[in-house]
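Hey, I'm writing a tutorial for new members on how sequence and structure tokens pair up, and I'd like a real worked example in the thread rather than a made-up one. If someone can provide the structure for the chain below, I'll link this post from the tutorial.
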Amino acid sequence: MELVNPGLMWLSIGVILFVLEMAVPGFILFFFGLAAWITALGCYLFHLNLNTQLAVFLVSSLITLFSLRSVVKKVFTGDSKDDEEDSIMAKGGEKCVVSAAITPPAEGQVKFSGTFWRAEAIENIAEGEVVEIVKQKDLLITVQKIK
């Protein structure tokens, strides 16, 4: 009679790895936990010796890590792209005041909602003018004169 059921042991290891995933950044331990559960399933369905259990764990870890990581990471972190525009200002139409003159190709500065932002434009805009936000990319706002 076995004192420790190997399937129960692998199931417990999987749960521990899932809990540790919440504390450790990188989204890797999740797949090791999943592999531990696959190994536990193998132990319940077949009588596997320790070497076979470790081989199943290793192979299933690698398969789940490399095949599912990008898919599952998109589900939990979102599918963002670097070229997407940011925040509510990205829609444009908001008004702000130029606090440092904008002379292309150099950047200037605008004040929007009590905060100063780096700004660019395709034409010269003097300090103190009210302008319209066209778009925002990261911390740079593109503005234009109000027509």
